Amino acid sequence: MRAYLSRRYHFSASHRLHRGAYSEEQNRATYGKCNNPHGHGHNYIVEVTAGGQVDPETGMVCDMVKLDEAVRKNIVARYDHTNLNRDEGFRDLVPTTENLCIGIHKMLSPVFAAGGLGPVDLVRVRVEETENNSFEYAGD
Amino acid sequence: MRAYLSRRYHFSASHRLHRGAYSEEQNRATYGKCNNPHGHGHNYIVEVTAGGQVDPETGMVCDMVKLDEAVRKNIVARYDHTNLNRDEGFRDLVPTTENLCIGIHKMLSPVFAAGGLGPVDLVRVRVEETENNSFEYAGD
Amino acid sequence: MRAYLSRRYHFSASHRLHRGAYSEEQNRATYGKCNNPHGHGHNYIVEVTAGGQVDPETGMVCDMVKLDEAVRKNIVARYDHTNLNRDEGFRDLVPTTENLCIGIHKMLSPVFAAGGLGPVDLVRVRVEETENNSFEYAGD
Amino acid sequence: MRAYLSRRYHFSASHRLHRGAYSEEQNRATYGKCNNPHGHGHNYIVEVTAGGQVDPETGMVCDMVKLDEAVRKNIVARYDHTNLNRDEGFRDLVPTTENLCIGIHKMLSPVFAAGGLGPVDLVRVRVEETENNSFEYAGD
Amino acid sequence: MRAYLSRRYHFSASHRLHRGAYSEEQNRATYGKCNNPHGHGHNYIVEVTAGGQVDPETGMVCDMVKLDEAVRKNIVARYDHTNLNRDEGFRDLVPTTENLCIGIHKMLSPVFAAGGLGPVDLVRVRVEETENNSFEYAGD
Amino acid sequence: MRAYLSRRYHFSASHRLHRGAYSEEQNRATYGKCNNPHGHGHNYIVEVTAGGQVDPETGMVCDMVKLDEAVRKNIVARYDHTNLNRDEGFRDLVPTTENLCIGIHKMLSPVFAAGGLGPVDLVRVRVEETENNSFEYAGD
User: Fold this and answer.
1) What percent of chain F has pLDDT over 90?
2) What kind of fold does domain E2-137 have according to CATH?
């Protein structure tokens, strides 16, 4: 009996969409107001979905305390109240929410693979940038 | 690296669920209070999900400015502050939210197919009729 | 110890903002797209706030079951799944949400005054027309 | 043209996560604060997703009035304002939200199979325990 | 320049509305399904509103870190994942949300009066029991 | 019959809480993680409340189209997708949400006083910084 747990985490950060290899005009054409100088910011919501068999003894699909620890240590503590453009993961990558989503998935995948959360898979990472705008990545 | 963008749009409209070929009793039995004479209305939320490869240069899955233009021109401008029963798309079709969802999908599909939004697919259209009631259509 | 209870109710209705005594141009200038022919609609949320002494025995400010009955009978059953322009209360009154709010307050005031809900006042009626738009009336 | 309807229902209940066959220490290690004596509670939201062909006559995927009746009778009336640990379905099962989700799926499956809702499948049951925590079960 | 800060905190708890001095019938008549044996529960949201002059140097009305510490220590740690009926504050008081609201106000008042949060007043405590049901207390 | 209209507007911006006249230690002690170098950001929601007599002809309290124009021109266009610390209004003022709230009130007051919105007052400006954190200013 495979079930899914989705859990939401919150952080606030700033970013500016800007690609160094592009001219100012190309940047403006590509990113619009998200390319405004000096950046802007969002209250990001990260939803992590884990899937696995429900343990017949505990009735749980995943050790949620350990999931919280992993996400808070690896994701929230890293990004909360920061400027994403200064993060080393975005040194050569534009900090779009697509790339943020993929980056979070890459950081959490080994945590799931290491087995500490139980026999459960990372199914999907979803990031809400605003209440009208969200992104998902489910791995390759 | 295939990712998904979901974006929400809003419009307010009225409708009445009523099928001309049915008797009054059949209409009442089929649609209940949604068949009340003179109609009623909703704040509809349309969520469009697009999927595609994340562009390695721009870090984006879809040209969101163009997606907004397409949805605002084809969907929001058409339906906002209108009576759906008067829309030509519902001349021979009951304006249920299922049919609305399919109609929006059919209007947006050629926009995606034309390629102007980038190498991205229309994955799904979801319409919330009330906060407890939503519908999805993902094509055939 | 005066405390306040606020309780939310939901109904879906259509309306058209249009004043018979105005020309088409005046109507259009005054109400904009809300004057579109054939109407449009909303999911309305009504929040009723009651205030009074907390009963030292029951620990309650108001008989909530009776409040629900009163609002459901007088307000929700009257407006839900209807066209507000057809309501007799709007025969000579434009069904703006301001007027709806005042109308609800006038219908609930005698219910509170009759004492059946306990020694509690009607403090305020608030109506949300959309998630970005709300109106309040607290009596004269 | 297969479409999906998702509908949300609400109930408030209490539970305590505790497995009789475990020692106090094991219970505490497994369930953390959810094992606190005397229980705690939540406002649960149940979202039922039904999928099927849109009826070309009615424009609907499912008889929503009958779906509401089935969920209210089988699920909401059973759990609302109760202590889940006292429910007979949890006599030998820990009332985690995973198990609740599976239990709701099992109770609704025969309702869909009996055909009274129309030619529509039970696609998924999703339960929100808090605004940051939700679970899904889609059958085996 | 007097401004207001409102801050929301969350806890999950169970309660049963029952007054020992009442007969079973009186309890049932007074509290309805909230009197169901074995209790039920909610995700409570507490909103604390503080008001004061905006400090011309810091631009802040209140030391939010200290406010968080005070509310988390005095309120959230006390009630989260508990059965309110077992709390000593409700030994002789029915744990209605009105009484909970007043109790929280009484516990926070001395924290504000002690001055550690800055020259700021406790303006109001508001508790949401469900998304349709909230209570406020602003002191006597 | 005095009624109130509240209307919500949205913008995304970044800020860093930092006072030039303070040492690094004082800044850190005063603003905590909000003082992190390079800033962070939020999805701000601005709610403007206007109060006045309901016009007996139009049934409206305020010309909402003109209110929207005024707020979009003076507030949203100014702050959306910017870094608040670079705004000239925050050259000598820390961009706390308290100060932002007061600043918005000061910019909108003359718009109301000029009379173009009708015989209506600016009652209150409320700014949500996160879903758990909001600020209000109602003038002096």
Assistant:
1) 97
2) Tetrahydropterin Synthase; Chain A (3.30.479)
